[in-house]
């Protein structure tokens, strides 16, 4: 049997994302012992399926994330967690067709398939640094496509957007004198 038979590393990552199989991601990482963190991230950031969706998009489309209740059963990490653990991993790539982020697709998953799992994915993605301010090609942020009944998802996205906005303001106002509104004294 030749060594080149079987799935390529890219195919393994796509399959891992579709079926929430973190051990496949670990297998690919184990096969990269001589690679730098930047090279590893470049590989994972470049993985796409046949439709041009990146790894995190695939996870969001298929709901490849364990609910906290299953995590308490000491099951292994899920693929999303494993991807977010990769240093320099890009968490806001855009789809080819609608220019949507994985956060957009997690909201769509909540709207169309499983609201609780979708909410959990949105929360985890926001906690991991996904930017809720990014608009798709239709000018919509993830919060703009949340169904009306899902106020908890809207709250998560609003809070994350506030945190991002405040972080941007602090960075841009470092040399300016504070207006006192942030001060506790």
Automatic annotation (TrEMBL):
InterPro entries: Ankyrin_rpt (IPR002110), Ankyrin_rpt-contain_sf (IPR036770). It holds the Pfam family Ank. Keywords: ANK repeat. SUPFAM superfamilies: Ankyrin repeat. This is Uncharacterized protein. ANK repeats lie at residues 98-137.
């Amino acid at each position: 049997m030749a060594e080149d038979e079987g799935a390529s590393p890219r195919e393994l990552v796509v399959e891992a994302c579709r079926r929430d199989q973190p051990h496949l991601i670990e297998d690919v990482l184990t096969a990269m012992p001589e690679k730098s963190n930047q090279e590893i991230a470049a590989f994972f950031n470049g993985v796409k399926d046949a439709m041009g969706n990146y790894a995190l998009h695939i996870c969001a489309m298929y709901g490849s994330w364990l609910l906290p209740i299953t995590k308490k059963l000491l099951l292994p990490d899920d693929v999303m967690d494993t991807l977010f653990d990769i240093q320099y991993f890009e968490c806001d790539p855009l789809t080819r067709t609608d220019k949507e982020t994985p956060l957009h697709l997690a909201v769509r998953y909540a709207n169309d398939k499983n609201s609780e799992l979708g909410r959990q994915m949105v929360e985890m993605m926001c906690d991991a640094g996904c930017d809720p301010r990014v608009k798709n090609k239709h000018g919509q942020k993830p919060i703009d496509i949340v169904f009306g009944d899902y106020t908890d998802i809207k709250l998560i996205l609003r809070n994350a957007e506030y945190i991002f906005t405040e972080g941007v303001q602090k960075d841009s106002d470092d040399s300016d004198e504070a207006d006192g509104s942030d001060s506790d004294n």
